[in-house]
Amino acid sequence: MPVRPAMERITLEVIMRVVFGIEDARRLGALRALLPRLMRIAGSAALVRVPPNVRERALASPLLLRAGALPTTRYVRVRDEVDAILYVEIARRRAEPDTAGGSADADGSADAGGPSDVLSQLVAARDEDGAALTGREIRDELMTLLVAGYETTATSLAWTFERLVRTPGAMAALVAELDAGTPAARGGTSYLDAVVKEGMRARPVVLGAPRLLDDTAKIGGYEIPAGWYLSASIPLVLTDPEVFPEPERFRPERFLPGATSPEAVARANRSWLPFGGGRRYCAGAQLALLEMRVVLAEVLRRVTLTAARPEAEKRRLKNVTLVPGESGLVVARPREDGASG
Ligand code: HEM
User: What CATH architecture is 149-203+244-334?
Assistant: First the structure.
């Protein structure tokens, strides 16, 4: 089976429940079908290749929006269906101020006992003047979190499985740790943590973290003028052999203080930037890392995975992400001693 679509089903469910906080089975069912369609159409070559000015005009023209064959029309129809559900959810939370947590704490966490989904916190948020976000602003935030958080996490999981099934030693060490119960803490880092880090290092999903310069930047003897984009190349940094010796090898031990010198681990951690860095560091990094740990553990408790083909999968560009060319093709066999379900 290809593992990436299976991971997408899980990460979509997480966004719908943890971020959108939707519990109603009917609305969940509708979004389960609509959101992948929206992502597919929004990223489709048919829509992306329409020049931006033509696209804007087509999106604003009631006449053109009646032409069902146009990619812009197909996009707007699905988007409007999704929006209708999201606006119902936003209105529902607004109508229940007591259960919306009242106010989000300064650190962004919900009041104790209140719902902790992101939508509830967005509804409860107030700016310095006490103003709430508009419905449209909340909807935009939810869509941003969906687009940024759903395929990225699924693809990272698929790559980690793709690497693990081709590195039997690492797979055996991980399964042994999981079978032993609570992951053994080695200097605060479990083998599971190290596998997640190494998966994201060996196969980063996002290529860069661009910044638009508002002033001249001097870097490595070059002067780059204001108005240019400057970006670290995430894959280049993560394969720097001075920081990550034998970068082509999948070796979680490089993040384990027990197996590698503390200085080398600290250096590896400093250069580990699959989530970008600085002020615009990924807002969902902690959620993504938690998801990856839980999903890896739960899958490997239930099934034994092996590579469907021996050769490594090629990297394929999909929108702005790098995905496994065969979607992470694995053979999954139920574990006789494993958890059921
Ligand atoms: C393994 C999964 C993920 C990867 C590899 C990833 C990667 C990234 C990267 C490279 C950036 C740009 C950082 C920069 O410019 O310095 C970013 C930004 C962002 N990510 Fe993620 N991300 C992941 C998961 C998530 C999740 C689960 C969410 C939310 C549910 C999320 C929400 C965001 C948001 C909102 C931003 C923009 C932050 C800002 O500009 O202030 N991401 N992510």
Answer: Orthogonal Bundle (1.10)
Report the nearest-CA residue for atom 20 of ligand 1: 282
Q: Is the pLDDT of residue 97 over 80?
A: no
The pLDDT value given to residue 68: 81
**Hey, where are the domains in the chain?**
3-144, 149-203+244-334
Range with the poorest average pLDDT among 19-33, 127-141, 183-197:
183-197
Expressed in angstroms and rounded, the spacing between residue 239 Cα and the centre of ligand 1 is 21
Is 70 exceeded by the pLDDT of residue 99? Answer: no
Ligand 1 centroid to 339 CA: how many Å? 33
d(CA 131, ligand 1 centre) in Å: 27
> Does 55 show up as a binding residue in the annotation?
no
Q: List, in sequence order, the alpha helices (H) in the chain.
A: 3-14, 25-42, 45-48, 52-60, 71-95, 118-124, 135-164, 168-179, 191-202, 234-237, 262-271, 285-302
Residue nearest to atom 14 of ligand 1 (CA): 276
Mean of pLDDT values over 278-291: 95
What is the distance between the alpha carbons of residues 234 and 209, in angstroms, rounded to a whole number? 8
Ligand 1 site, residue 273, Cβ cutoff 6 A: no
